[in-house]
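Whiteboard transcription, Tuesday session. T.W. wrote the C-alpha cells on the left side:
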C-alpha cells in the first residue's frame, strides 16, 4: 500500500452533507486509484494538445504565420474566461445537488468529442479548429475542477499532500503514455507535409481519454447528498450566485483567503505561460523539431511525475505553504535562466528542472484549497480555485502572446514572466501566518 493511502476500513474526513452510515464503503486504494485515473486520462489532452502537438500544429501550420502566437494566446484566454464565469456557478450547483460526478461526466464526454473533431480541420479551416479547441479546453478545465473537488472526501489532513501528489504524478504518466502513442505520427515534424499524421494525434488523444477515464466513473463515489434546503427552480440561479458572491465577499475580508487565491493567481499566470508556450519557444527560438522535441517532452513527463510524487511527501512534512515557497523560488531561477538559453541542450536541462516543480506547484495548490474549504463547500471553493486559476491561465498566455512579435522577443517575454513568480512568492510569504491560521481553523471547526 503506498504511504499515505487510507487503509481499507478507514474513513477520511467527509463533507457535512454525508450519507447515512453504510451508504458507501470506506475509502479504499481502489477508489483512490480510480480518482487518479482521471488525472491519468485528462493529462493526454493538456500534454498532447495544449503543451506539445496541437499548439505546434496550430502555430506552425494552421494559423496565419504573422499572428499565430497571438491567436494561440487568444484561444487560451477565451476558453479560460468562459471557465472563470462558469466555475463558481457550477461549483455551487455541484454542492447543492451533490452533482460532482454527473458534471464531471458531462465535461469528460464534451472534451472527448470536440478533441476528436479536430481531426477534420486543415489550414483553410483554422477558425473552426480554434473554435473546437476552445470548447474542448473549456470542458477539460471544468473537468479538472470537478475531479479536484473530490479530494477532501478521499484524503485526511495527514495525507492530503501525498494523495494530491499521487494524482498529479499519475497524470504525468498519462501524458507520457499518450505522447508515446503519438510519437510515430510526429516524426515528419510540424509541417504542412506531415499534417495528416498530426491531425491523427487528436483521435489518439480522444480515444485514450475516453478509455482510461472509465475506472473513475465505475469506482469513484459521490459521497455528498443533495442539500435538503436547495432552492426551487425559479430561485436557483439567484440563490447560487448569492452563495458565490458571499464566498467572494468573505474572501475579500479574510487575510488567509486573500493570500491563498491572490498569490495563486499570480504564480499560475507564470506556470500557464510555461505550459502553453514552451513548444513554440523551442521550435521558433531554438530551432528544435520533430522527434528531438517530443523526446524532450517525454523525458520531462517522467521528471514531472517524479517531482509531483516526491513533493507530495515534502508537503506532508513541511506543509503546503512552505512547499509552494520552495517551488516558487525554483521557478524564478528557472525562468530567468530560460531567458538566456541558446541551445536545445540548455533547454532540456531547464525543462527537467521545471518538470520537477510544475506538478508539485499544482498539487500543493490543490491540497491547500482542500485544507481551506469548509466541509459543506468543497465544490464551491474548488470553483473559486478554478476561477483564479483559469483567469491566470487566460491572462498569462494572452500577455505573453502579445509581447511576441518574433523569435527575438522570447527572452524579454520570459523576463516579464519572472515577475509573476516573484510577486506570487512575495504575497504568499507576507500572508503565510494568516494563511496557516486559516487552515488550522478549518481543520478544527470545519468553518471558514
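and on the right, the sequence the group agreed on:
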Amino acid at each position: 500500500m503506498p504511504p499515505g493511502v487510507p487503509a481499507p476500513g478507514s474513513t477520511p474526513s467527509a463533507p457535512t452533507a454525508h450519507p447515512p452510515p453504510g451508504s458507501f464503503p470506506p475509502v479504499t486504494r481502489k477508489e483512490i486509484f480510480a480518482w487518479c485515473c482521471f488525472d491519468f486520462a485528462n493529462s493526454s489532452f493538456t500534454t498532447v494538445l495544449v503543451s506539445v502537438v496541437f499548439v505546434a500544429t496550430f502555430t506552425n501550420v494552421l494559423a496565419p504565420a504573422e499572428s499565430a502566437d497571438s491567436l494561440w494566446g487568444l484561444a487560451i484566454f477565451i476558453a479560460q474566461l468562459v471557465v472563470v464565469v462558469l466555475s463558481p456557478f457550477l461549483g455551487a450547483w455541484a454542492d447543492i445537488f451533490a452533482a460532482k460526478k454527473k458534471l464531471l461526466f458531462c465535461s469528460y464526454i464534451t472534451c472527448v468529442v470536440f478533441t476528436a473533431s479536430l481531426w477534420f480541420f486543415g489550414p483553410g479551416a483554422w477558425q473552426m479548429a480554434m473554435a473546437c479547441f476552445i470548447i474542448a479546453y473549456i470542458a477539460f478545465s471544468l473537468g479538472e475542477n470537478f475531479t479536484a473537488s473530490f479530494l477532501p472526501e478521499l484524503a485526511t489532513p495527514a495525507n492530503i499532500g501525498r494523495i494530491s501528489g499521487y494524482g498529479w504524478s499519475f497524470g504525468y504518466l498519462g501524458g507520457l503514455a499518450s505522447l508515446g502513442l503519438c510519437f510515430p505520427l510526429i516524426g515528419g515534424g510540424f509541417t504542412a507535409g506531415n499534417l495528416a499524421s498530426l491531425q491523427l494525434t487528436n483521435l489518439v488523444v480522444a480515444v485514450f481519454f475516453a478509455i482510461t477515464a472509465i475506472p473513475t466513473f465505475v469506482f469513484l463515489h459521490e459521497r455528498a447528498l443533495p442539500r435538503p434546503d436547495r432552492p426551487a427552480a425559479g430561485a436557483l440561479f439567484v440563490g447560487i450566485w448569492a452563495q458565490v458572491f458571499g464566498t467572494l465577499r468573505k474572501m475579500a475580508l479574510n487575510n488567509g483567503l486573500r493570500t491563498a487565491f491572490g498569490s495563486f493567481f499570480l504564480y499560475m499566470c507564470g506556470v500557464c505561460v510555461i505550459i502553453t508556450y514552451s513548444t513554440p519557444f523551442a521550435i521558433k527560438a531554438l530551432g528544435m523539431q520533430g522527434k528531438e522535441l517530443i523526446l524532450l517532452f517525454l523525458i520531462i513527463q517522467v521528471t514531472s511525475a517524479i517531482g509531483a510524487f516526491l513533493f507530495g511527501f515534502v508537503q506532508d512534512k513541511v506543509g503546503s505553504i512552505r512547499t509552494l515557497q520552495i517551488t516558487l523560488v525554483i521557478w524564478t531561477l528557472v525562468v530567468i535562466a530560460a531567458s538566456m538559453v541558446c541551445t536545445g541542450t540548455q533547454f532540456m536541462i531547464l525543462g527537467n528542472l521545471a518538470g520537477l516543480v510544475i506538478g508539485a506547484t499544482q498539487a500543493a495548490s490543490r491540497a491547500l484549497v482542500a485544507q481551506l474549504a469548509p466541509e459543506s463547500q468543497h465544490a464551491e471553493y474548488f470553483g473559486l480555485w478554478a476561477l483564479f486559476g483559469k483567469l491566470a491561465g487566460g491572462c498569462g498566455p494572452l500577455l505573453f502572446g502579445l509581447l511576441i512579435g518574433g523569435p527575438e522577443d522570447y527572452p524579454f517575454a520570459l523576463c516579464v514572466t519572472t515577475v509573476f513568480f516573484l510577486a506570487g512568492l512575495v504575497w504568499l510569504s507576507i500572508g503565510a501566518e494568516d494563511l496557516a491560521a486559516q487552515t488550522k481553523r478549518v481543520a478544527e471547526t470545519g468553518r471558514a
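Someone added at the bottom: The two ends are 33 Å apart (CA to CA).
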